[in-house]
Each structure stands twice: as structure tokens, then as C-alpha cells.
Amino acid sequence: MSLIETIKNIPKAELHLHIEGSLTPELMWQLSEKHSIALPYNSVEEIADAYNFSNLQSFLDLYYAGAGVLIDEDDFYQLMWAYLSRCSDENIVHTEIMFDPQTHTERGVGFDVFMSGFLRAIEDAEREYCISSYLIMSFLRHLPESDAFETLAQAQPYAEKIHAIGLDSSELGHPPSKFQRVFRKVKEQGFKIVAHAGEEGPASYIWEAINLLGVDRIDHGVRCQEDPALMTYLKEKQIPLTVCPLSNLKLCVIDDMKQHNILSLLEEGLLVTVNSDDPTYFGGFLNDNFIALSHSLDMNKEHVKALAMNSFKASFLPQSKKQEYC
Ligand code: ADE
Ligand code: ZN
């Protein structure tokens, strides 16, 4: 079996995927017509052509605007169903999906609307494709901590359906310490915790996410290599990093995929995983991320197997389920 076939066939988990970042230009166009929402584009092709980013903020501006076409329960169903259908095509058997409530509640679209659509699609995918899905609710870090407290309160009726709480959006200038108090409450309520750190931000943000928020995983974390003591800590504690290669390239965290450090982190013994982040904006779903690595790095089947196994080890699945794959 070729390396590409191994990548496509091996069962995998995806742990870092923003559902709003899986909105295709086609669905964005279709929903804009359905709801008579004016987009600053004249065609599906123009939407796709606009996806050239210079940094995280230049992407986030388009990503939040794009999410504005999601209005009713069926829109959120279609969004989730499209992603989970893609998972089925890619042999992704388990996925932990982030969603940003504040992107919707601030437009007057409530938890009842998006949660109903998400959960209906997740149940259908479990039945039709045997894919298991967990939801990760993420706070937007460019907003004040008080908004995060309010979002946590609004989420209470859905607490049983949410496995973890995360932190995303503009990293620089919004360190994890800004959200210490709300994550204390999150921990008291028994949720798992993840946070984006060390994507654009420095290694010190990764330390803050660990020491001040008590994270179970770090999203991205690729800048950990700037701090040898942090590398040692991540290795010893086996704190997972959910790395997103095409995202790093598209957002200019690296200039060339040949510079990506994921395989050197893997070889150093860190628990790294491959993920797609915002696949329709960054030019590829999960298998495309593996394939892009295989084209630019000296990647072999053992690397692919180790990365796939790590995706289950780093997941929030119960130990008995993890053992089926590891
Ligand atoms: N929200 C969606 N994608 C993100 C990313 N790559 N970093 C921070 N926030 C995000
Ligand atoms: Zn992300």
C-alpha cells in the first residue's frame, strides 16, 4: 500500500476542527441566497479567491463574516452534516468539534437554534456512518471574560452534550491569564479544557494555558520549540498538541511546509496530532493535511501510524474505546 493509501485508509480521530471553518463557499453562497444576505462577492469562485491570508486576524475577519449566513436550525444541520459526511469519506471515526457560540449569539441566533442543528446531524452521523462526535464550546478571547461567563451560563441546559470548553480567536494580546477565573468555574463544572496557544503567541502563553487554565490539551502549540523547558514538560506529561499544518502555512506561521516542525516534535516524543482547523478556508480537510506533510517532509508509514494512534490517545474518548484503536 502506498503512503497516500495508508493515509486515506487508516482510521483517525480529528481533535481540532472549527465547525464554522468547514463552511464551504458553495454552502455560504446557497445560504446567502436563502436568507437574502448580501455578500461582498459575486460568485462562489470569488469567495474561494478571497481566501488569501497574511496572519490569523486577516483570516478571522473573513471567517466571522462568513458565519453570518448561518441563521436557522437547518443551516447548522447542513453545516455539521457536510463535515461529518466528509469524515466518513476520510476514515475519521471519531471527531471533537469546536463551535463558537458568541459568533452566533451576538447576531441574535441562540443556543436552541445551533445546538439543535448540530446535535441532529451528530445523531444522524452516528447512526449512518458510525462516527462518534464530541462538542467543544470555545470562548472568543478577543471579547471580555465577562462575556465568556455569560456564554457558560447560557450553555448550562446543554452541558451534558458538551465535552470540553476551549479558547480561540485572536491570540496576540489576549493571553490565557485573561480567562483564569472563568476556566476555574469551567473546571469546577467538570468539563475538559483546551486552549489555542503558541499558534501566533509565544511559548509563555502555552505555560499560562497549562498553569493558569489547567488545560488537558493545547491547540496548535507549535511555538513550544522556542522553550526547551516547555518541550521537556510537554513530553514528560504527554500533554497533547493538536497541530494544523495547512492552517500554519495559510496563516503564515511558517513560510514553507518544509519548515513544519510536527515530525521533529513527534520524533522528540511529544504527543502531536494532525488536524485541519478550518478546512474550507485553508485548502484541505484532514487527509489533505497528512498528504501536504508527506509531500514536504521525510514522512513514512510509521509516522502516519504514530500520528493516527496519537489522535486516539489524545482524544477524550474513554480508555476502553481508545484501546480499540491504539
Ligand atoms: N478560530 C478558528 N480558527 C482559529 C485559529 N486557527 N486560531 C484561533 N482561532 C480560530
Ligand atoms: Zn483552531
Automatic annotation (TrEMBL):
Binds 1 zinc ion per subunit. Keywords: Hydrolase, Metal-binding, Nucleotide metabolism, Zinc. Residues 11-326 form the Adenosine deaminase domain. It is an enzyme of class 3 (hydrolase). The active site is at residue 199. InterPro entries: A_deaminase_dom, ADE, Ado/ade_deaminase, Metal_Hydrolase. It catalyses: adenine + H2O + H(+) = hypoxanthine + NH4(+). Its EC number is 3.5.4.2. Zn(2+) binds at residues 16, 18, 196, 277. Its cofactor is Zn(2+). The record marks 220 as: Important for catalytic activity. Substrate binds at residue 278. GO terms for cellular component: cytosol. GO terms for biological process: adenine catabolic process; hypoxanthine salvage; nucleotide metabolic process. GO terms for molecular function: adenine deaminase activity; zinc ion binding. HAMAP family: Adenine_deaminase. Catalyzes the hydrolytic deamination of adenine to hypoxanthine. Plays an important role in the purine salvage pathway and in nitrogen catabolism. Belongs to the metallo-dependent hydrolases superfamily. Adenosine and AMP deaminases family. Adenine deaminase type 2 subfamily. This is Adenine deaminase. It comes from Alteromonas hispanica. The lineage of its organism: Bacteria, Pseudomonadati, Pseudomonadota, Gammaproteobacteria, Alteromonadales.
